[in-house]
Amino acid sequence: MNALKGFSAPIVAGVVLFGLWQGVLSLFNPDGFVLPAPSEIVGALIENWDEVYQGARITGFVVVSGLIAGIILGILAALLVTRFRTANETITPLAVAVNAIPIIALAPIFNNWFGLTSPRSNQAIVVALVFFPIFINTARGLTQVDRSQVELMESYAASRSRITREVRIPNAMPFFFTALKLATSLAVIAAIVAEYFGGRQDALGPMITQSAGLTRYDEAWAAVLAGTAIGAVLYFAVLVLERVAMPWHSLIRAHGDDK
Amino acid sequence: MSEVPSTDEAMSAAQGTSSLVIDIRGATKVFNPGKSNQVEALDEIDLSVVSGEFITLIGPSGCGKSTLLRLVASLIPPSTGTVQVNDKPAEQARLDRDYGMAFQTAGLFDWRTVTKNIELPLELMGWSKGDRRRRASEMLELVKLSEFAKHHPNELSGGMQQRVAIARALAFSPSLLLMDEPFGALDEMTREHMQDELLRIWEETETTVVFVTHSIPEAVYLSTRVVVMSPRPGTIASTINVDLGDRSTATRDDPAFFKKVTEVRIALREVEG
Ligand SMILES: Nc1ncnc2c1ncn2[C@@H]1O[C@H](COP(=O)(O)OP(=O)(O)OP(=O)(O)O)[C@@H](O)[C@H]1O
Ligand SMILES: [Mg+2]
User: Fold this and answer.
1) Which residue is closest in CA terms to ligand 1's atom 22?
2) Does the CB atom of residue B172 touch ligand 1 within 6 A?
3) Per-residue pLDDT of chain B in tens (273 residues, 90 and over written 9)
4) What does the alpha-carbon distance between residue B175 and residue B192 come to, in Å, rounded to a whole number?
5) Which of A26, A70, A76, B1 has the most crowded CB, counting CB atoms within 10 A?
6) A129 contacts A186 by C-beta, under 8 angstroms
7) Which atom number of ligand 1 is nearest to the Cα of residue B29?
8) CATH 3.30.160.20 correct for A37-258
9) Is residue B153, in this structure, part of any structural domain at all?
10) ipTM of the prediction
């Protein structure tokens, strides 16, 4: 598969990095107190598989559900706002400003709203964090269209919704996917950090804080590894989705690679 | 500004007949009026085009040729004056899909294959899939791009993209063709080939063409009337009637052809002077 091609180099680099990590630690830091060796982390992962797997499921659900809701809301808001010019001119700058709020810092406040042990507050954080980049970028892609393409459609007396479908939405796709890739990594970070402050206690976030508090760093790292896996799987899914949704776009890249 | 527009027999003759395809009266266009970036693009344009004419607009860059074409296409409204197309307001003609347009920039859709790009106007007009496919492949043959039917525009060169745009504009055989420097990115041989093809289509389908170009020989070779525009704000400085009869490769070496080229060159020199 074509999508796999770009992954061989980073995989090799990753293997080399972990090899070095393991090697350096076994030479200079045999007790692995501050930084456990990869072998210890994998050991802790196997030993605590049930809890880590359960935690990953809970955190993964927060991430995925928050992502999907954030994407849907972001796209809808972008379509709505670009439909009405004045709405676009007033709401979009506002959204850019609101986006400057460090949303993750609101986690304790959201806990207060949704209940300390409810995963809803964590989902809400993810939704808010995903919403803004998706909204702003998609709205930009819907409006920053080639003038002659719109004029061409107008010259054929195409309806407004037809122009949106034929010109604006395809034009917004690369903008959307750029934002989605950003949002995917943000969503994992947001979910875990939000879990530090509340939500279900068997999620990855509390697992990290509790293990670290008990100086069980290998277990904390095992949970981090699980979080990394969630992020990597989602990112890969987005890449595949991007190629499927925009086959014409990868052509430009393929051209670039060949030369 | 140098010269007052000279009168033109064909135009005044046309005014009496009822087969006016384009009738522009006192049209001016001011962009961003009242603002600091105000631009007077067109000033008091009067132009009538009779059915079956081939008009070229020629003039210095920025004189408002594309703007004039956009007025006819009703993509922008005139600031003052009226624009009638096929005896109705230009807006109505646009809604009735009375014309086909090829833009200065190809304006192809990267997300559609070459075939699908050519099919776009046909889709909007509700042609059946089979008819669309057939017409698209005919048009591709015409512009010699059949082997690129399934490619995407970003895989084509600039000149090839322009040929696709021309194929798209011609696809539904509109009775009025508006073309904004459509051959600008083509090499000389392809350009001459496309000129001959366009003339053939024009004769066969009895369309009316308004064609913008920077090339004097192209203007003379193609048109029945060359409209020379003055620098901004654009006015019609003069119009030159051309009657070269049936055109062929020999026409390009004909003294009568060179005489007209010189005439247009002098007219252009006067407005730029
Ligand atoms: N949408 C617009 N808004 C503001 N000014 C415009 C707009 N379109 C054109 N103009 C201005 O109107 C003038 C005429 O532009 P136009 O594109 O019609 O020139 P042109 O004769 O087609 O030039 P060229 O030969 O370079 O294509 C220019 O000064 C241009 O800056
Ligand atoms: Mg122009």
Assistant:
1) B66
2) no
3) 444 444 444 444 444 445 889 999 998 999 988 888 889 989 989 999 999 899 999 999 889 999 999 999 999 999 999 999 998 999 999 998 889 898 888 889 999 999 999 999 999 999 999 999 999 999 998 888 999 999 999 888 888 888 899 899 988 888 899 999 988 878 888 888 888 888 888 888 888 999 999 999 999 999 999 999 998 888 898 999 988 878 877 888 888 888 989 999 998 888 876
4) 23
5) A70
6) yes
7) 12
8) no
9) yes
10) 0.82
